[in-house]
Structure formats: structure tokens, C-alpha cells
Amino acid sequence: MAKKPDPAGLNSRLLRKPIQRFGWLFLLPTFIAFCIGFIWPFMQGIYLSFCKFNVPSDAKFIGWENYVKVFKDAGFMNAFKNTTVFAVASIILINVVAFMLAYALTQKMRFANIFRTVFFMPNLIGGVVLGYIWSLIFDGILAAYSTYLTADPTYGMVGLVILVAWQQIGYMMIIYIAGLQAVPEDMLEAAKIDGATGRQTLLRVIIPNVMPSITICTFLTLTNSFKLFDQNLALTGGMPSLMIDGAKINTTELLALNIYSTYNISKNYHGVAQAKAVIFFLLVAVLAIAQQTLTKRKEVQQ
Fold first, then answer.
1. Strand, helix or coil at 249?
2. Helix 211-227 with 270-301: angle, nearest 10 deg
3. Which residue(s) pair with 242 in the sheet?
4. Mean pLDDT throughout 224-228?
5. 215: Cβ–Cβ under 8 A, 6 or more apart, which residues?
6. Distance between CA atoms of 254 and 228, rounded to whole angstroms?
7. Helix %, strand %, coil % of the chain (to 5)
8. Between residues 155 and 20, which one has the greater pLDDT?
9. Model's pTM, two decimal places?
């Protein structure tokens, strides 16, 4: 009869010592790849934001000039305003609808697994494809009113919110379902015995226990909203354009698309686009850290 492995032997100091000594050897390939694929390009990007260049090899240091141009760019400021409005609307809509769907699908309803699959499927479709498909849908609807999607900035922004919500709600719903299924049954039973109504159970028991899922979903929707690019490009392309104070403004352009458009103006704007990208990174990082801090506090309080 084969002898069972001794758990104490597996955790012995004799076995741990070589792992601790040579652990760095296993981490080294991943660390090198991370430095090559992320750290070095990131540091180079920060340097290029202070340069005038066509390609990185001919970069010429010019100081803060690119950043001055960024804050004087009316298009960038308009894109920041558009992105803020879009992010607030999409974060609220996506999380509220996703939570409602998750709550409904955890109430032992028939065909729940089929509904979960159907709601999740839009997340599998690429953003560019979705943008073109939804542009056809919106233009088909608006044609009845003798207009089209890019004729009015309001149509474009509302269309973006609907598109992104349709794509992401199913993904967030899955995360909320996992959180709802982790709510302790004894707490739900205790609330029922104490005579708590469905609304009281939801607000006082379920939502506090689902706060980790709310933290994750809020983080994902926040960062996805600020980083949105392909859907914006395919659905509206930033159109319609208006001339405001002598400057051309793309009224439905978000920050990521504005950076892309700036880079493609001419080689003289490559450094300006890089400066915008650095500011964009700092903005998203600060917002994400602030959101994580605020929602994590709620988890601790519960």
C-alpha cells in the first residue's frame, strides 16, 4: 500500500528554503517582459511628452510647451467635459440595471441560466463592430424624424451611453450575481424571522454584503468609461463638428478619441498628443484610486 505524502514534509523548512532562495528566478522572465512591454514604453512616453518629434528617434526636448498647448486646446477641454458627463451617466445606468438583473436572476426564476447567457453575449462583440451596428440602428430610427445620429450632439452622446450600457451590463451582472450568491443564508433567514420587508432586507442586508462587487463594478465602469475609444470612433467619430471661437470642436468626442485625433493632425502635434496621453493617464489613475478608497471604506464599515 502506497504511503500517503506527509503534509508536514511538504511544508518543511528543507523544502521551503530552496523555493525562497530561487523564487526570484521564476519571477524574472515575467518581470523582464513587464519592463519591456510596460515600464520602458511608459517612461519613454513621459519623456516624449516634453519633446517635439515625428518618430521617437528624432525627439527634440522643448520643455513644458506641449502641456501649455494642451490646456489652451478648446477641443481637449470639450472632450474632458463630454467624458465626465458620459462617465457619470454610464456608471449609474450600467450598475443600477446590472444589479437589478442580477437580483432578479437570483430569485430562483425559470430559465435563469439562459437569461444570464443572453445578457452576457453583447460583451463578446468588439467595440468597433458594435459601433457600426448601432449607428445603423439609430439612423434607422431617427430617419422617421428626418434626422440622423450625428446631426445633433445630444443624439450622439445618448447613443454612446445606450451602446456601452448594452455591451457592459451583462458583464457587470455576472459579478453582481457572484456577490449576491455569497450573501450568508443565515442573515437572510434572520431578517425574515425578524419581520423585515423585502426593501429592508435589500437595503440593510443584501447591499452591504454585496459592497465588494459594487467596488469592482464601479471601478470597471469608471475606467472603461474614461478609456472608451473604439465605440466612440465607430459610432459618431466625434461628429458633429462646430466652430466655437474660431476653433473646430468635435461635440461628441471623448478624451481617448481626442488624443488619437490630435496625433493624426500632423507631425508637429505628436508631442501634444503624448502630453494629453500623460494627463489622461494621471486623471484616470487618480479617479480610480479615489473611487477604490471610498468604496473600500464602505466595505470596512459593514
1. strand
2. 170
3. 249
4. 93
5. 292, 295, 296, 298, 299
6. 7
7. 80, 5, 20
8. 155
9. 0.86
Question: What CA–CA distance (Å, rounded) separates 212 from 232?
Answer: 30
Are 148 and 159 a contacting pair, CB within 8 Å? no
Distance CA 211, CA 190 (A): 20
Q: How confident is the model at residue 203 (pLDDT cuts 50, 70, 90)?
A: confident
Distances (CA, A) of 280 to 108, 186, 196, 248, 287: 44, 46, 46, 21, 11
Cell numbers representing residue 200 in the block = 429592508
Band (pLDDT 50/70/90 cuts) for residue 127 is confident
Q: Nine-digit cell at 138?
A: 439609430
Q: Are 151 and 239 in contact (CB under 8 A)?
A: no
Contact 217, 95 (CB under 8 A): yes
Instruction: Provide the mean pLDDT of the chain.
Output: 88
170/166 Cα distance (integer angstroms):
8
